[in-house]
Design brief:
Layout: H1 2-25, E1 34-38, H2 44-52, E2 57-60, H3 63-70, E3 79-82, H4 91-97, E4 100-104, H5 107-120, E5 124-131, E6 141-142, H6 146-155, E7 159-165, H7 178-195, E8 201-203, H8 210-215, E9 220-223, H9 225-228
Parallel strand pairs: 1-2, 1-9, 2-3, 3-4, 4-5, 5-6, 5-7, 7-8
Helix pairs in contact: 1-2, 4-5
């Protein structure tokens, strides 16, 4: 456990240094950016080590996998994010297990989340995932559907729309992801202007491209490999 903690702490220090430099270039403050540790496929011991290193936000993309870990994580005052594609038959369990759902891509999913959140008597923070890369293997709402979807999500009494997220195509040169991050920021700004409602969260950027995402306005980055190592 101590070796795991030392490894993760060292990686986290390097990540924070890169965040600091990226935020400085964008004339932002590093404390504006939340690190979501992508802990999928890592065990409870690794999550506890990351928690002990100072992280408080964790992202998982499989309901059943996290369900198996959850009992071993009692006592951690952490925020648990669901960040994957959410199947309709897993919605109820996801709402029970997670503090945030970061992947709404349809009104149908939003309605199921609303119903399950109402049954749990909880307010559920959510993000809309926007599909910008044109890749068939990735989910997300189409750009053209975003205004109507955002209006529908915002109308539900048990969902709190906090912002947008996207996963651009993978590029060997992270600079090529910049237009996708910039586009998401522009879409968020347009939605705020249309609705007058604040959408403070832009969740974008992962281990290989989070520096570019921060320069383009990311408030949350999802970091797995850079923190925990290869899966």
């Amino acid at each position: 456990m101590l070796e795991n903690l030392a490894f993760i702490s060292s990686n986290l220090a390097r990540i924070r240094e890169r965040i600091e430099h990226a935020a400085g270039r964008a004339r932002r403050h590093a404390d504006e950016i939340t690190i979501v540790a992508v802990s999928k496929m890592f065990g409870a011991e690794a999550i506890r080590a990351a928690y002990d290193a100072g992280l408080r936000h964790f992202g998982e993309n499989r309901v059943q996998e996290f369900e198996a870990k959850r009992a071993k994580l009692d006592g951690l005052e952490a925020t648990w994010h669901f960040i994957g594609r959410l199947q309709s038959n897993k919605v109820r369990r996801a709402v029970h297990l997670f503090d945030r759902i970061d992947c709404i891509d349809s009104v149908a999913l939003a309605k199921r989340l609303e119903s399950s959140a109402a049954a749990e008597a909880k307010r559920l923070p959510v993000l809309i995932e926007v599909h910008l890369g044109g890749e068939a293997t990735k989910g997300g709402a189409a750009e053209t559907d975003l205004p109507a979807l955002a209006a529908d999500v915002a109308s539900f009494s048990h969902l709190e729309l906090h912002g947008l997220m996207t996963i651009p195509p993978y590029f060997d040169n992270p600079e090529q992801a910049r237009p996708f991050f910039r586009k998401l920021r522009e879409l968020r700004d347009d939605l705020e202007n249309r609705t007058g409602c604040p959408l403070p969260t832009l969740s974008m950027g992962m281990s290989h491209d989070f520096v570019i995402a921060i320069e383009e306005g990311a408030t949350e980055i999802r970091v797995g490999t850079a923190l925990f190592g290869d899966r």
